[in-house]
Design brief:
- The protein is α+β, with helices and mostly antiparallel strands.
- 33% of the residues lie in helices and 21% in strands.
- The protein has helices at 4-11, 45-61, 73-79, 109-115, 131-141, 157-167, 176-183, 188-208, 218-231, 291-310, 318-330; strands at residues 66-70, 91-95, 100-105, 120-125, 147-151, 170-174, 235-243, 263-273, 276-277, 280-286, 347-349, 356-360, 373-376, 380-382, 386-388, 392-397, 400-403.
- Helix 4 (109-115) links the parallel strand 3 (100-105) and strand 4 (120-125).
C-alpha cells in the first residue's frame, strides 16, 4: 500500500526529500533529544472488539452479510493486523455474526498472526490455490452465502472481482459509510496517540530549524528531521522540505535548490506513534524576511485562525474552506483555486491515514462532530517566487476545536 512518504517522493522526484526512515539510528545531530513516546499506549484488544461489535450491529441493521477488506489501515483499525499490500491477497471478512476470518498466504501466516489482536480464524492459501475461494467459503461458513456484501472502499478491484466470481451470488455494495461511521470519530485512546505524535513532530521541527545553514539542500534538512524524529521516539512518515521557488508548489519541484540568504524554507513533516499520524507544516525564512514574505506569512496565519473560528458543531465541514477562501479573495488572492493563492483544500481528516475523510473542501457537507480530526493548512503559493504553508492538526470537541499543537507565533518564531 502506497504510503504518503512514497507518494511525496514520486511527486517531487526524490532529490527534494530525505527518505530516511526505518533502519536509521540517531546521529550526533540529534544528540540531547530524548524519547517522548515511552508512555504511549497502543490501542487495546477491548477497543478493537468494541469496534467490531459496532460494525456488526450496523451490518445486521442494514441486512448486509459481511464487510470485506484487504490489508491497509482499516484492517489494522479493526483487527490490529499491520500488513502491506502486494499481488498476494491478505484480506479479512467481518461477518454480521460470528468471528473474523483472515485469509493470507500460507508462508505469511506466522507474520500476520503476530499483530492479530482479536479472536479470528486464519485461513492460509498456498501459491497454487485461490484466496478468493477461501474468502467465499468463509462467507458461507459465517452465514453469508449470497446477498449483500460490503467492501471497504480502498480494497482493490481484482480482489472484489475474484470474490464475486468465486461466490457467484453476491450483490457488492460500498462499505464506505460503514467504515466512516466508526473511523470518523476518534476515541480518547486514539486522540492520545495523535497528541504524542504531534508533540514529537513539533519538537523535531524546533530542533532542526536551529541547524539551518547556507548551502544546505532539501535532502540535508529532511535527513536532520528524520534523525530528530527517531531520537524523540517517533517513526518518520514523511519529511517534505521545499526551498525557495520550489515552496510555491505544494509538493515541490524537481529543480535542485539550496539555502541562501532570505530563502523560504517550507517543511511539511509527520510521524507515526503506534500507527497514528501527525502532520505539521512550518515556513521559515533564512535571514531577513522581505515585506512580501512577511505579509504572506501573516495572511496564512490569519487563514488558519479563521478556519478554527468557523469550526462549530454541526456546520458542514466544507464551510470552513469557504470561509478561508473568502478571506483570501478579499485580500486579493485567487479567486477560488487560482494562483497566486490557495490551490488546494484547507485541510483533511487524519488518524491512521495521513489523509482520510472528511475533507475541509467546499463540496464536503459532512456535519462537524466532536471527535473528528483535521489538518488546518490554508497555504498561499506565488509561482516563480515562494509559498507559505502553516499547518497544525486539531480535533473537534463539544466546546469547539482543540489544537494538538499551538499555531506558529510569528515569522521570526514559527516554532
Amino acid at each position: 500500500m502506497w504510503s504518503r512518504r512514497a507518494v511525496l517522493g514520486a511527486a517531487t522526484a526524490l532529490p527534494l526529500i530525505g527518505l530516511a526512515g526505518e533502519g536509521l539510528s540517531a546521529t550526533p545531530a540529534a544528540a540531547g533529544l530524548a524519547s517522548m513516546t515511552a508512555q504511549a499506549r497502543p490501542i487495546g484488544v477491548e477497543e478493537r472488539r468494541a469496534r467490531i461489535a459496532r460494525l456488526q450491529a450496523l451490518l445486521v441493521e442494514q441486512k448486509i452479510g459481511a464487510l470485506l477488506m484487504e490489508s491497509g489501515s482499516s484492517l489494522e483499525y479493526f483487527t490490529g493486523i499491520k500488513w502491506h499490500r502486494s499481488e498476494r491477497t491478505t484480506a479479512a471478512v467481518i461477518p454480521a455474526r460470528g468471528a473474523v476470518v483472515v485469509v493470507t498466504p500460507a508462508f505469511e501466516e506466522p507474520s500476520v498472526r503476530e499483530t492479530l489482536q482479536v479472536e479470528g480464524d486464519v485461513r492460509p492459501w498456498n501459491e497454487h490455490e485461490s484466496p478468493f475461494d477461501r474468502i467465499a467459503q468463509a462467507l458461507k461458513d459465517r452465514g453469508a452465502p449470497s446477498g449483500l456484501l460490503a467492501v471497504e472502499p480502498t480494497t482493490r478491484f481484482f480482489i472484489v472481482d475474484g470474490v464475486r466470481q468465486a461466490g457467484g451470488g453476491y450483490e457488492i455494495v460500498s462499505g464506505d459509510a460503514l467504515v466512516r461511521a466508526l473511523r470518523l470519530i476518534k476515541s480518547p485512546a486514539e486522540l492520545a496517540l495523535m497528541q504524542i505524535a504531534n508533540d514529537v513532530t513539533l519538537a523535531a521541527l524546533a530542533s532542526v530549524h536551529t541547524r539551518f545553514q547556507a548551502g544546505m539542500r532539501s535532502a540535508d534538512i529532511a535527513a536532520l528531521m528524520d534523525e530528530a524524529t527517531l531520537a524523540l521516539g517517533g517513526a518518520p512518515e514523511f519529511s517534505l522540505v521545499l526551498l525557495n521557488e520550489a515552496s510555491a508548489y505544494p509538493h515541490g519541484s524537481a529543480q535542485p535548490q539550496a539555502v541562501r540568504e532570505s530563502s523560504t524554507i517550507l517543511m511539511d513533516c509527520g510521524c507515526t506513534v503506534h500507527g497514528y499520524q501527525s502532520d505539521i507544516s512550518r515556513t521559515f525564512v533564512f535571514g531577513q524576511p522581505s515585506p512580501r514574505q512577511r505579509k504572506t506569512w501573516n495572511t496564512v496565519k490569519r487563514g488558519q485562525e479563521i478556519a478554527l473560528q468557523t469550526a462549530t458543531i454541526g456546520v458542514p465541514v466544507g464551510r470552513i474552506d469557504d470561509a478561508v477562501r473568502g478571506f483570501y479573495e478579499r485580500e486579493g488572492w485567487g479567486p477560488g483555486y487560482r494562483l497566486p493563492g490557495l490551490s488546494h483544500r484547507t485541510g483533511h481528516g487524519i488518524g491512521l491515514d495521513g489523509h482520510e475523510s472528511p475533507y475541509l473542501v467546499h463540496n464536503d457537507a459532512t456535519p462537524l462532530q466532536a471527535g473528528m480530526c483535521f489538518s488546518d493548512e490554508p497555504g498561499i503559493y506565488i509561482p516563480g517566487e515562494f509559498g507559505v504553508r502553516l499547518e497544525d492538526c486539531w480535533h473537534m470537541t463539544e466546546g469547539g476545536p482543540k489544537l494538538f499543537t499551538p499555531l506558529a507565533k510569528s515569522i521570526e518564531a514559527p516554532v
